Structures are given as C-alpha cells and as structure tokens.
C-alpha cells in the first residue's frame, strides 16, 4: 500500500516570528542568533540576508561581514516555542501521526485520512492556509510517499512552497537533481562522485552498483536507495519513539569548538523539551558527529538513572564532546544529539527508589521553565551552556 507523508517546514521561522511581533522589520535583512561579540552563531537568516551568503550555523561575526546592514536580533526561545506549539496544534488536527523533527519541522503520515480530510495535497493546502490565517506565518510543505521524498519536496519550492512528488513521478523529479540533494552527501562525497563522472541523481542511479561500492564503500547502498527514492522509515510520534533526536547539517564544515558546543546545547534543550512533552525519560545520550567525508561517529553515554533533566543531559553530551574533541577533533559537517533507552516514569523497578533531591530540584526548574514558556512565551528565561 502506498503511503502519503507530509513534511511541514516553517519558512525562516525565528526571523518570521520577529517580523510578526515587529512589523517595522519587514523587508529588512535579519540575523537571529547570538551576538558577534559573544562569538555567537546565526540561528536563522531572513531571506533578505541570504543573497549575501548568510546562513544558519554561521558565526555571527562572519554573517555581519557579509551583510553589515543586517539587523541582529537575540534568540527569544520562549516566544518561538509558543508559536511552535500553535503550529503543532494545527497539524495535529489532521492526524495523530506527527513526528516533530525540530521546533519548526515535522513529518505527518496522512495515509488513509482521505475520507475525513480529502487527498494529501488538500491537507497540505489547508495546513498552509491555517498557518497563514491563524498565525500569520508561512510554511512550506512537501507531499510524497515517504519521509526522504517529502523532506526533499518541501525544500524544492521554498519559500511558501507546496510540492507533491507522486509515486509515478519519483524518477522524473529526482534524476535531474544534483547529488548533493541526497541525505548524507557533503562536499567531499560530492567530489568523489564527480571523479566518477556522477553529478546528477539519475547518473548515480544508472551507475554500476559494484563500481560504486568500490568507490564509496558502505555508503553506496544507502545512496542508491535514496537515488531510487526508497525509504521505508515510519513516521513515529514522540510518545511511541525508541529515540528522540535533533541533528543539523551545516552549509560548510564547522571547525570552531565553541560554535559546535553552542549548537549541541540548543539541540540538547530541544531533545529534553520533547522528552518532557512526551512524558518520557532517557538513560542514554548519543552524539552523532560527521566529518567532511562520509565518516560518521556515534558516541554514547548511559546513565545509572533515567532522566528528562536538561542539565543532566547536557552534562553527558558535553562530556562526550569534550572527550572526542580532546583526542580526535576534526571540523564537522553534521552534529546531533539523541536520547534513547526511553522509559516512562515509574516504568522500571529501579524507580522504586525516589530520584535524588538534586534531580528533583532540577526537574522542578525544568517544569517551571516549560510552563512559563508555554504560557507566556517570554524570552525572559535564559539558560547558557556553561563553560566548555
Ligand atoms: Mg524551517
């Protein structure tokens, strides 16, 4: 049976929310992120700033050199979380099968909802409409038979895109695209493919599997699958998940450790927030670190007690990062944080013991922050990653 998956992705989310709150910012290049003096990183560059070369995960100082007239705005996490909650409230009207990918992105499985809501493309249209009418924001939506294609589709006509890839047009859409559009292909991999004369997805698909395996090793099978538009991963709502993770691929490799720590801290906060929202605890924290080529490292730490405390997760993530950085630092193309070994509170014998007092205090702090963020959406509550 063919599935219908939607990938909903808000356009320039943080910048769009800032513009919504301060209409005088309309039409101006905006950089939302940490200050250049504080060695901060761009979280979102508005579309007006992008032609100058500004993009997310770039050091603010560099973005300002490219576009000196840009207006720099601090990240108001609470306000974005509040708008995010409203976006998720809209998408859940159409299906309970919603898998959040980040604060402004989600997969939806709308297979079999036709009788209720019409065809998948109609659901996509209605979501875009509701996001625009009710929130004053813009979403791009991709509609396709699987997650990989849906995510690819939402990006094809951004901003304000609505792109459908029906099952009988997969090759037609994929074949002319440059190979870098496939998940996991960075500049180094692109170069090694180019050496084989492969620039487009269609050429990759037609290439001899054996030759490809010789050139790329294990990555060959993965890439051929994607080149054929195959992806069988299910859409998993957080409360059914085996793991909850956040990752980001950078436009260029990042060699600055503080910058990487700042990115990982943001991801850890988001993972912890999703754990608490789904009522889950985790015992294992994993960092995924990808170098410029295909090499991807996975480093985990498992804790004695399950937790959903932001600071506890961050202590583990930071320890993994520092350990790795001390002995084998390399510039990164991708970084991510995942919580696995998930459990519900009281789900284990271990939990017969009450959590230690410190933990209880931290959990109260987290709950208080979550509550304030959800209710008032004020950016008044700030947390920092602490010393590296
Ligand atoms: Mg987005």
Verbal overview:
Among the domains are: 5-11 and 83-166, Alpha-Beta Plaits (2-Layer Sandwich); 175-227, DNA polymerase, domain 1; 241-356, 2-Layer Sandwich (Dna Ligase, domain 1). 41% of the residues lie in helices and 20% in strands. The protein contains 14 helices and 12 strands. The strands form 3 sheets. The chain has a 5-stranded mixed beta sheet. Strand 2 (30-33) and strand 3 (42-45) form a beta hairpin. Magnesium ion binds next to strand 1.
Which helices and strands occur, and which strands form pairs?
Elements: E1 5-10, H1 13-21, E2 30-33, E3 42-45, H2 60-66, E4 71-73, H3 77-91, E5 98-102, E6 105-109, H4 114-117, H5 120-135, E7 139-144, H6 147-156, E8 162-164, H7 170-174, H8 187-195, H9 201-206, H10 209-216, H11 219-227, E9 243-254, H12 257-278, E10 282-290, E11 296-307, H13 310-328, E12 332-340, H14 357-375
Parallel strand pairs: 2-4, 7-8
Antiparallel strand pairs: 1-6, 1-7, 2-3, 5-6, 9-12, 10-11, 10-12
Helix pairs in contact: 3-5, 3-14, 10-11, 12-13
């Amino acid at each position: 049976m063919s599935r219908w998956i939607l990938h909903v992705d808000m356009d320039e989310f943080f910048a769009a929310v800032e513009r919504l709150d301060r209409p005088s910012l309309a039409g101006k290049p905006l950089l939302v992120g940490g200050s250049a003096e504080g060695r901060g990183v761009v979280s979102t560059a508005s579309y007006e700033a992008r032609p100058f070369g500004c993009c997310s995960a770039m050091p603010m100082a560099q973005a300002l050199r490219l576009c000196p007239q840009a207006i720099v705005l601090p990240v108001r996490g609470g306000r974005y979380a509040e708008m995010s909650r409203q976006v998720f409230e809209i998408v859940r009207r159409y299906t309970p099968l919603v898998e959040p990918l980040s604060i402004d992105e989600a997969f939806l499985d709308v297979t079999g909802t036709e009788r209720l809501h019409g065809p998948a493309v109609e659901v996509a249209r209605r979501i875009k409409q509701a996001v625009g009418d009710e929130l004053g924001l813009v979403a791009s939506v991709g509609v396709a038979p699987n997650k990989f294609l849906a995510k690819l589709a939402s990006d094809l006509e951004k901003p304000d895109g609505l792109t459908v890839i029906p099952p009988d047009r997969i090759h037609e859409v994929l074949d002319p695209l440059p190979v870098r559009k496939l998940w996991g292909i960075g500049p180094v991999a692109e170069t090694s493919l180019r050496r084989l004369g492969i620039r487009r997805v269609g050429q990759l698909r037609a290439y001899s599997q054996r030759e490809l395996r010789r050139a790329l090793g294990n990555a060959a099978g993965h890439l051929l699958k994607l080149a054929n538009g195959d992806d069988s991963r299910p859409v998993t709502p957080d409360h059914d998940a085996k793991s909850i993770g956040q990752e980001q691929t950078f436009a260029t490799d990042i060699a600055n450790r503080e910058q990487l720590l700042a990115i990982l801290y943001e991801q850890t906060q988001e993972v912890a927030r999703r754990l608490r929202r789904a009522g889950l605890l985790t015992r294992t924290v994993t960092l995924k670190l990808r170098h410029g080529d295909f090499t991807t490292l996975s480093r985990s730490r498992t804790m004695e007690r399950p937790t959903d405390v932001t600071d506890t997760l961050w202590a583990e993530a930071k320890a993994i990062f520092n350990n790795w950085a001390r002995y084998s630092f390399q510039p990164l193309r991708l970084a991510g944080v995942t919580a696995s070994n998930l459990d519900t509170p009281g789900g284990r014998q271990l939990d017969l013991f009450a959590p230690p007092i410190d933990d209880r205090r931290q959990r109260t702090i987290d709950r208080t922050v979550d509550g304030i963020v959800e209710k008032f959406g004020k950016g008044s509550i700030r947390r920092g990653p602490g010393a590296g």
